[in-house]
Amino acid sequence: MADDFSALIPELPEWNNGGGIDPLAWIECVGNYELAAGYSFIFWPGFVRFENYVLREGFSVESLRGFEDACVHDRASIEAVMNHVHIADIHCNVAASEAQLRYLGRVLKDIHEVKLARDFPELAFEISFNDEDGLDPIDYQLTFRQSA
After folding, report:
1. pLDDT digit string (tens) for the chain, length 148 residues
2. Which SS3 state, helix, strand or coil, does residue 70 take?
3. Element containing residue 78 per DSSP (H, E)
4. What total number of domains does the chain contain?
5. How many Cβ atoms sit within 10 Å of the Cβ of residue 98?
6. Is 17 part of any domain?
7. Rounded distance, CA 91 to CA 70, Å?
8. Is the residue at 19 inside a domain?
9. Is 103 helix (H, G, I), strand (E, B) or coil?
């Protein structure tokens, strides 16, 4: 791989008696199929149409109704809040570096663009990730909504 992923996976250079290892070889050594299957829900998310919304699979109708009242039935605002993901919440109680959060956020943004276009070719979407330096880790968020 051309990119140096040691900032994202700090142990890569330590493998092979300090000779290093690339990310794909590292996954072969330390990963497992249970994690791979679980990550598929993050890296290829499910989306559903519900009424006039497009939402993440598994959403709560009760939460949706609450946000409808709070957001004065503004579909774009409701979808944005219902569909947001804090990148730091992917793993509970595990610290992440800013580089890791920003990298994953950018990758997930690209995945959402492709998946939403495939699943709903008749609709247009705004997918956003606040890819800025120096944010509090919880503020690295990804969201999407239908374009107006």
Report:
1. 346 799 999 999 999 999 999 999 999 999 999 999 999 999 999 999 999 999 999 999 999 999 999 988 899 999 999 999 999 999 988 999 999 999 999 999 999 999 999 999 999 999 999 999 999 999 999 999 999 6
2. helix
3. helix 75-82
4. 1
5. 15
6. no
7. 29
8. no
9. helix
- For residue 80, the enclosing domain spans 47-146
Q: Which residue has the tokens 């409808």?
A: 68
> Could you say which DSSP state residue 17 is in?
T
DSSP 127: E
Give me 17's structure tokens: 């008696």
Beta strands in 24-147 (DSSP E): 47-50, 53-56, 85-86, 125-129, 141-146
- Gap between the Cα atoms of 72 and 9, Å rounded: 44
Residues recorded for the chain: 148
DSSP 17-52: TTT---HHHHHHHH--HHHHHHHHHHHS--EEEETT
- 24 neighbors 3 (Cβ within 8 angstroms): no
pTM of the model: 0.91
Q: To which residue do tokens 């939460």 refer?
A: 63
In whole angstroms, give the CA distance from residue 3 to residue 89. Answer: 26
Q: Is 34 among the domain residues?
A: no
Q: By the 8 A CB rule, do 143 and 84 touch?
A: yes
Which amino acid type is present at position 60?
A: S
The tokens describing 113, both together, are 């663009």
